User: What shape does this take?
Amino acid sequence: MISELRERIVGMHYLNHWIVLILDTVASVLCTFLACLLAGHLVSGGSGMMSMVKITLLSIPVSGLSFYLFRIYRNIIRHSTLRELWRLVAASGVKIALLAAVVLVFMEPERQLLVGGLFDLLMTTVVLICMRVGMVLGYDVIVSKISNSNSHSHLLIYGVDDRSVALETRMRNSKQYHVGGFYNYGKAYKSYRLADLPVYYFNDEQDFVHIIARHNIEGIVFPDYESIRVEKERLIRYCEMHHVRMLIAPPVDEVSGDKLVPGIREIKIEDLLGRDEINMDEEVVAAGFRNRTVLVTGAAGSIGSELCRQLASFGVGKLVLFDSAETPMHNIRLELEERFPHLEFVPVVGDVRLKARVRMIFERYRPDVVFHAAAYKHVPLMEENPCEAVVVNAIGTQHVADLCVEYGVEKMVMISTDKAVNPTNVMGASKRLAEVYVQSLGVSIAEGRTPGRTRFVTTRFGNVLGSNGSVIPRFMEQIRHGGPVTVTHPEITRFFMTILEACRLVMEAATISEGNEIMVFEMGGSTRISDLAKRMIELAGYVPGVDIEIKYTGLRPGEKLYEEVLSDMENTTPTIHKKIKLAKVRKYGYEEVRLAFRELERRALSVDVRGTVMLMKEVIPEFVSKNSPFEALDAEFAARRNGKGDTPEGAAAGSGVGIVGE
Assistant: This one.
């Protein structure tokens, strides 16, 4: 019964708008009567009773008409603001003007009528405003009492700025949460009230425990990602140690429709590891894709699907999704249909290894821009299957790039990886091969040696937080099953960025690039994986080493202990975007690369594992295997260089493929 009453009160019909109109009219008529009565006593000593009655009766239709014209009864009373007062004042003024006009035409004007009109205007305006205030206060009292009688989660909102107040407004009518006040570090706002709620403070863990226990607080809500990062080593730690829920309100653009208030969610490890939000000039970026046909390969993957979401929000003319994974493709299709009902998009199941299938996409849809995200990415798996890594990551990229040129695509953006920098594994080397091909092709076009107009942009970044098959979902699954959480080495570190951050930078890079460039993203500081595991265990409410064990399993084949620093000033140059730099890499001749790719494809398709990896090392001399069976090939190359000279041409002599690097 209580829940039904609450539904009725917090719904649109707290007060029916026709009831509001009737109440306003009755109040207005009473004000007219009292104004006439007061004016009569002040001016003529109480005479003119008949005129007063006529004007009062006339006020009924006049008040109703003026209030109807200004729609003052149509506002949702509980959301009224000061900006709406002008309607009340204007409606009162029109009422008086209409009454005055009727009096001048049909009645004998009297001095007391002028005074009564002024009184009526003031009284009507004040009474209508007081009625609105009373309705809002009554609503708040009723909802507060009902909320307190229900089993809501009692929360505090972190911070005292505009974002925190806006969050309180969003949560005010929540069926799940009850906001008990605001929470801030330091005593600056001690004993203050904000949005009629108390502001509590903390200086240390003792203060935190006192407030939580005294007010029966179950959780802290953070208004944005920035506030989480500010408190990740203080308030977040206190919440972890004392098992207090930590929640975040995602930005409004991350939730939609009836999910606006329930968008409050638990804090995840990605929120703690992420860095300052990237401010993207969305209008400039969107202008480059609006009303264009855009193709995304690997569209069902972590990066590809987020690219699709962002492109959909930019108003592309047509979005073509291409991926070989059936179920993830089905899922992203359902999501886009629900979130972007007016978007014209085409999901296509296919494989970049099959050039005829890729050609069909270009022939049928003629894309203007291509985002190439299709790739195999798992290092140990590709170390065991090098031929497949080459066919998908290198040859697949060649197929897409060649068709971009053939069908006049304006720009192709390739998603690469930090593992292509001085690669120590097959996966990284295969992505470096893909970089070499698209860059050499782009340079050849720019220099007029190859016909075409396509500009190629390559983007490099590190590990993406929460992507499919990455370390975070793996750790979550292990924690869910009681451990142990497996880490390869106590000192292993990685660079991380969020999927949203990575895709925003990809969009920025695609916008600012002039073509034929490898654009490197600033990844911030590296994270020790063992620390990541401990933090995730703590976030889950357990004690590392006590409730959940961390087990070290040793480096996997091809795995580095430390990833390369991509944005080091020695190997990059700056761009107009502070988080994007241009990589300094050796240049290859396109004809030599094309011949090498022909041989790579032949060896990979014939499953010549040794020959395939051997040729990869010849084309990419900096590819030196680590913790891998292919280290033996490096020893063979070293011996060959000693006998034939320390040059890439000498190393390539054994295969019959010559590669020229600058």
